[in-house]
Amino acid sequence: MKKVKGGITRPKGFFASATWCGLKRKRKDLCLIFSQVPAKAAGVFTSNKVVAAPVIVSKKNLANGTAQAIIANSGNANCMTGKKGLDDAYKMAASIADAMAIKVSDVLVASTGVIGRDLAVGKITSAVDSLTSSLSAASSTDVAKSLMTTDTVPKEVAVTFKLGSSVISIGGVAKGAGMIHPDMATMLSFITTDAAITGQALKKALKESVDATFNCITIDGDTSTNDCVLILANGSAKNRSIGSRGKGYKAFTKALSFVCADLAEKIVRDAEGGTKFVSVNVKKAKSDADAKKAAYAIATSPLVKTAMYGRDPNWGRIAAAVGRSGADLNVGRLDIYLGRAKVVSKGMPAKVANGLLRNIVNKRDIDITVILNKGGSSAGVLTSDLSKKYIEINAHYTT
Question: What global pTM score does this model have?
Answer without folding.
Answer: 0.94
